Amino acid sequence: MVPYITGILVPLLFTLVIHNTNRRKKRGLPVDVGGEPGYAIRNHRFSSPKTSAWEGVSTLAELFDESCKQHHDKPLLGTRKLIAREIEVTEDGRSFEKLHLGEYEWLTYGRTFEAVCNFASGLMQLGHSRNERAAIFADTREEWFIALQGCFRRNITVVTIYASLGEEALCHSLNETEVTTVICGQKEMKKLVDISRQLDTVKRVIYMDDELSSNVSLVDGRWAVTSFASVEVLGRENPVDPDLPLPADTAVIMYTSGSTGMPKGVMMTHRNILATVSAVMTIVPRLDKRDVYLAYLPLAHILELMAENIMVAIGCSIGYGSPLTLTDTSNKIKGGTKGDASVLQPTLLTAVPAILDRVRDGVRKKVDAKGGLSKKLFEFAYARRLAAINGSWFGAWGLEKLLWNFLVFRKIQAILGGRIRYMLSGGAPLSGDTQRFINICFGAPIGQGYGLTETCAGGSFTEFDDTSVGRVGAPLPCSFIKLIDWPEGGYQISDKPMPRGEIVIGGPNVTVGYFKNEAKTNEVYKVDERGMRWFYTGDIGQFHGDGCLEIIDRKKDIVKLQHGEYVSLGKVESALIVSPYVDSIMLHVDPFHSYCVALVVASQPAVQDWAVKQGIRFNDFSEVCSKPETLKEVHGSLVQAAKKARLEKFEIPAKIKLLSEPWTPESGLVTAALKLKRDAIRKAFAEELSKLYTS
Question: Which residues form the AMP-dependent synthetase/ligase domain (predicted)?
Fold first, then answer.
């Protein structure tokens, strides 16, 4: 009996000791820095910012070259074969495209290197010189990555543009950077042709798909239009020696998603991007060439661009997918066939909070639908795993985790292929509820990062063994993070129990500035007396005792009500979006009123299920959303979520407008990273917002 008890107690005690040690671990340390006075922290492992993790590698072109030599025969880029494309028509007459996709077909590192060299040479043969800029305007795919590396091989600056960008912003981005060559997909080609008369400098277009857009004849004689495959053939037959960049050369001008006004072009050098790649490589453990990464986020976003360069540095495989084909139940996947994750079975995944929130809501819906014993078993297993992660005595034993994974969570994990061992979340704050849910159901830690386009996604990152939620970790090895006083908002570094203030990031990952926008560059970028470059983020943070950062506010999101109360829009929205009835939400504050209101995009499955259970009759979803009883139910759910988050009464929306249509990048109401475009939403729903205040 004694050996049996010992066999249980020893692992339990060991787990608790490790857990408590991790809680006390110093992850960031105070550091003396120059510039504006503040409270600064560095990574606990490095006293000075890291620039490169590899000797002799100082640019992304050199990194790609070295990795291809080292992993020559290993698969690098994978794309699923298209078997069939079908149109399904629903009972109400709406049509939807459905895809039947096959297995992944792979290019090795060696073959990818050949494709990159051929594309680089072909680009020169088309007449594109190194002094001209090329733009990539397409969804994430293997040709995107090949084009990027091909441009780097000839020291051509790449302008990255979201595939979902509107016409005005697209014209602005291409004209401002004086792009001469655009590399795009078929649907993006159609957009380009539609605005061709407004584009001043474009001379040639390279299209990635087999088919051309139907309106391409409209640019005959003005643009040279060539297929991606033809450029590769041209380069293979007429090879050109590389013209490799220097670390200080501009690699990318990345246009931000334009959540406020016109997008700004952030200028990134090879040194900037390599610093963040090196930093993440240093602190994420056990990354190696056996890993498989599922790429589906926009490569025009710094998060995905950084992730794919990290994967190349590791020597792992990148399989391409899309948000609409990600899982077996995704919108574009033909019924009875498999989504990208099921086929690829990735081990690594990057996600934005909006996608993880939807995964969580989808799982909860299925659990609730099953009900009975199945639901009770899930809730019991979830509670046990939650106790383990939180360091409680019961449920901390590792073998119990294996048991619950086998009995309960295995089917949930199969949604993303069943082999995920690590996820990275960025782009926006991830709610603690979602983070815990993903931790438990998918059995994998989430590294929540904080960074901006202006810092090449580098800022802070949660370490592998940090089980806390709501924080974004300690500074990356490439960065110093400093808090400075913001008296107007009531945040100061002398605050107790934690120093608080505006977040300022310094290090080699801080970019050069905004293209052709010196005034804005000088406003938010500063160089101190020691030569360190700092970026003023406008975000408000606080440092915990272990040196980890928590984002608590944003200067632009703080609005004053009629009687002087300050409301933080982002903070309130993060608290309310946990309601199962909410897909998206935007809080609105009018300084001439004493209360706030909200536009709520309803979660169709949750709201419809509730309506059916209540016996409410309806013809379509918009009718459900317009009913007073639905409005009352959703508003009550928001009030409940607000109270749970301990919001003040004036922070809780007094009235809401329930919307049936989702906000998408295509609608122009959210960015490609699914961030709210507040100005666009306010304009689109000006009448509805006015009625909320007058009714």
Answer: 98-515
